[in-house]
Amino acid sequence: MFKIWAKIIKDGKIIKQTVYESVDNFTYSQFFSYLADICEAMDIATPVLLKTHIFNYAKFSTVRFIPRDFAEPVDFDKLVLDNISV
Questions:
Q1: How many Å apart are CA 10 and CA 17, to the nearest integer?
Q2: pLDDT per position as a tens digit, 15-74
């Protein structure tokens, strides 16, 4: 079981947040699927996922997506995903 806390931040404030939960074991090969589910729940576009993003999540338990990571224009400063250890 794992949880990911997703936050949309604009001007230094959280404007939208959600917690993604799954009873399955976490696998990095499924990270894009988790990201797509989170973005769908938050009603935003899914950003481009690079190896750097996955490495940052693996090493620091957090990853940040900024507007240039999205193919569509977004109206926030960053999307942050944090691992919530259970």
A1: 12
A2: 999 999 999 999 999 999 999 999 999 999 999 999 999 999 999 999 999 999 999 999
Question: Could you tell me if 61 and 82 are in contact, meaning their C-beta atoms sit under 8 angstroms apart?
Answer: yes
- 44 residue type, one letter: I
Closest Cα to residue 64, out of 26, 35, 86? Answer: 35
- pTM of structure: 0.92
SS3 content of the chain, % helix, strand, coil (to 5): 35, 35, 35
CB-based contact 4:57 (threshold 8 Å) = no
Do residues 56 and 73 touch, judged by C-beta distance below 8 A? no
